[in-house]
Amino acid sequence: MTTTLAVLGATGQQGGATARALLAADPAGPADLTVRALVRDPASGAARALADAGAELGRADLTDQESLRAAFAGVDGVFAMTTSFTPRGTDGETADGIRIADAALAAGVPHLVYSPVGGAERHTGIPHFESKRRVEEHIEGLDLPATFVRPVFFMENLSPSSEDGTTVLRLPLPAGVPVQMVAVEDIGRVAAAALRDPSRVPEGAIEIGGDEVTGEQAAEILGGRYEALPVTVLDDPDLRAMFTWFADARPAYRADFARTRELDPQVLDLAAWAATRPATGPST
């Protein structure tokens, strides 16, 4: 008997991490596993790399519900995430998420794993948190078994620069304010665990994280110094709202670190993640 699990956005960050985690699953498990990697362009280099690793490629268009329904045909589970950082903004993100959920229901998908964001359910007022929460609420209103894997701040969003041989990390975050973080690969491993066995997240939702550090601690781990910037340096009101929330809400994120490690024993703290990253390049 073969289990088929579909991964939307399989050449993106979270989708790619989820597909890789599924493809790396123990082949001696209880059932053969087919990973259906759903992408916009099956001929792309990233898509071909997934095929070479054993994935079955499929095409899916988030703006076309019939395309999604066809892509979900015959699968035992779907991983999906959405983003507001496109020209269609937060309204487009919510529309995409609703379309994904409705297509999964129409295709008879037994289980959907959706990755929104840590704190989505806590009415933060942050636009790209609220757009994801609207997707969650739509899913909750359907007869569609689902798990929400809510990641905190991505470690990959840390972008130190090298200036005169010194690593400098700048964030619009006051000194002394801790922020919970997670590596994208760990999002993929937790999502894969939930896809393979939904009973491992019996509550139906989990906020996941790998570490909690201040800006100064992050800079020290990355081998440099920290400079706190005022939130006004951010032109995007969405990001301004998020970093204001980081500073004002104590705690902002509320990851369950112990449960994250149960689902993903390889979960990385910031130091372990940093050890896997290339050296900081010159400032541009």
Automatic annotation (TrEMBL):
Signal peptide: none
CDD domains assigned: NmrA_like_SDR_a (cd05251)
Name the UniProt record assigns to this protein: Uncharacterized protein YbjT (DUF2867 family)
Superkingdom of this protein's organism: Bacteria
Family annotation (PANTHER family): NITROGEN METABOLITE REPRESSION PROTEIN NMRA FAMILY MEMBER, NMRA LIKE REDOX SENSOR 1-RELATED
Annotated Gene3D superfamilies: NAD(P)-binding Rossmann-like Domain, UDP-galactose 4-epimerase, domain 1
A Pfam family it matches: NmrA
Residue ranges occupied by any NmrA-like domain in the UniProt entry: 1-224
Family: Belongs to the NmrA-type oxidoreductase family.
Keyword Nucleus attached: no
UniProt entry keywords in alphabetical sequence: NADP
